[in-house]
Amino acid sequence: MNRVVLSILFAACLTLYSCKPKVVPPNPPTPVNLITVSAQRVFYYDKYPATTQALSQVSIFPEVQGYITGIFFTEGAHVTKGQKLYEVDIRLYQAAYDQAAANLKVAQNNQEQTQQDADRYEYLNAQNAVAKQTYDHAVIALKVAKSTTAAAEETVKTAKTNLSYAVISAPFDGTIGFSSVKIGNMVTVGQTMLNTISTDDPMAVDFLINEKQLSAFDALNVRKQDAHDSLFTILLPDNTLYPYTGKISVIDRAVDPQTGALRIRLTFANPKLTLRAGMSCVVRVHNQETTPVLLIPGKAVVEQMGEYFVFVAKDTLIATHADSTKKSEAAAKAEADTAVKGPQLHAFQKKVQLGQTIGPNVIVKEGIDDGDQIVVDGVQLLHDGSKITTGTGVKKPSKEAEKGGKAEDKKKD
C-alpha cells in the first residue's frame, strides 16, 4: 500500500515539474557599426537631365526649279558661310540672264536715241521752229524709252537673282547633315528639302528646373562669372566630363502651368565639335549653399514603400515589471537580471527626407539631428526597437563622409 502511494506521489511531482513553463532566453543583441552624425559643409553638384541644341538651325530649300547638277560638300562635315553646297541646272538661268542683259542694252540704246531727238526738238521748240505736236511726241517717246530701260533693268535683276539661286550656298558656319537629294534629282521651289544645317560652336544645352528654383537661377544669371568659373559643367553620354564650362544664355519667359517647369539654356564653347545637336547629357550646377548639412553613408538608408528610414541608436532601460498573468516569475526575473545591469543600446527607426547623393553618401534634410548615432552596418537584421551592440564601440565618421564626397567631385573635374 505504501509503495502505491509513493508511486502516485512521484508521478504527480514529475507531472507538475514537466508542466512548469520553460524560461526562454532573451534574443542576443545584433552586432552593428555606428557613426555619429555631424553637420558639415559639403561641396556637390545639383544635376539635371539636359539636351544639346543648335543656336541656329535651318532647312535648305531650292529657290529655283530644275535638276541637281552638282553637290559640293561632305555629309556631316563642318561648312563655312558662303560655301557652295548644291547647283541646280544653271544653263537655263544663265541663258535667261544673257537675254535680259541684251534686252537692257537695246533699251538703253533706244533711250539714248530718243534722248537726242528730245533734246533737238526742245531746242527747235524754243525757237518756234517745229510743230508743237512733234515736240510733244518727242518728249513722250523719251519717257517711254526711260520706262522701257527701267523695266529691262528689273528683268536683268530678276534673271541675275535666279541665276544666283541656281547655286545654293551655306547661310552660316555650321554642320551639315545628310543630303535628301542626289545628282540628277528634280527639285521644286519651296517643296523639295535639300538638307539641314545647324550652328555648332558655341552649342546650347537646355534643361528644366522647378519654378521654386527660379530665384536661385536668376541670381546666378545676374552674377558676373569668372572666365574659369566651374559653376556650370556637363557630363557627356559616356559619363565623361566635358572640358569646357558654360554660362546662362536664356531663362525662358514663362513657367509651364501644367508641370511647373521652366527651361534654362546654357551655352558652351565647342571648338572640337564634340557636342552634336540632340545629344543627351547631364548639367551639373555647382551648389552655392554654405550652410552645414548632415551627410551620412547611403548604405545606412532603408527604403520602404517609397519612404526612407535610418536606425538611430539610443540607450534605453527596459521595464521589468511583467504582467504576472502573461509571464512567469522566472521569465520576469530573467528580464530583470538583464535590466539591472543598466541601460542597453537599441535601434529605433526614424523616417528621413533625403537630398543630393554625393558619391557613396547622401544628404539628410530632415529626420535626424546633429550628434545622433546611426547604424551603418547590419541594418538588414534590425527592426524598430532591436537590441544592438557595437562590439568595439561607436565607429567614427569616415574621412569620405567628413569630406562629403569632395574627393569624387574633384576627381571628375
Helix and strand arrangement:
Layout: H1 2-18, E1 30-31, E2 33-36, E3 39-40, E4 45-53, E5 57-60, E6 66-71, E7 78-79, E8 84-88, H2 91-126, H3 132-165, E9 167-169, E10 174-176, E11 186-187, E12 195-198, E13 203-210, H4 214-222, E14 232-235, E15 246-251, E16 261-268, E17 280-286, E18 293-297, E19 302-304, E20 307-316, H5 329-340, E21 344-358, E22 361-366, E23 373-377, E24 386-389, H6 399-403, H7 406-412
Parallel strand pairs: 1-24
Antiparallel strand pairs: 2-23, 3-18, 4-13, 4-17, 5-12, 6-8, 6-11, 7-10, 8-9, 10-12, 13-16, 14-17, 15-16, 18-22, 19-20, 20-21, 20-23, 21-22, 21-24
Helix pairs in contact: 2-3
Main features:
Elongation Factor Tu (Ef-tu), domain 3, disordered C terminus, 3 domains, 6-stranded antiparallel beta sheet, Helix Hairpins, alpha+beta, 413 residues, 7 helices, 29% helix, conserved putative lor/sdh protein from methanococcus maripaludis s2 fold
